[in-house]
Write a structure and sequence with these properties.
The chain has 81 residues and is mainly beta. It has helices at residues 51-56, 58-63, and strands at 6-13, 16-23, 28-35, 41-46, 70-73. The chain has one domain.
């Protein structure tokens, strides 16, 4: 049985929403960045030890892929709030 993804943190800056997500089944940590107006965004798979830093500085991690396991552009998780 798959456990649901858990939102560990959320912040907004203007129209940008940043989420820190944990996938318990795979023990994977992900940062989701999305523009609430356009829907554009990206996901970054992050090493667990860098999760908080990546949450605070997602664009730096996306620009330097060696900090992340994987960057997927055009996808984001948007939470209605």
């Amino acid at each position: 049985m798959n456990s649901p993804t858990r939102e560990l943190a959320q912040r907004r800056n203007g129209t940008e929403e940043v989420l820190l997500l944990w996938h318990p089944t795979s023990d994977r940590v992900e940062v989701s960045v999305g523009d609430l107006t356009t829907g554009a965004g990206f996901l970054i798979d992050i090493p667990p030890g860098r999760a908080l830093d990546a949450f605070c500085h997602p664009h730096a991690y996306a620009a330097n892929p060696e900090n992340a396991y994987r960057v997927v552009r055009g996808k984001a998780t948007i939470v209605d709030g």
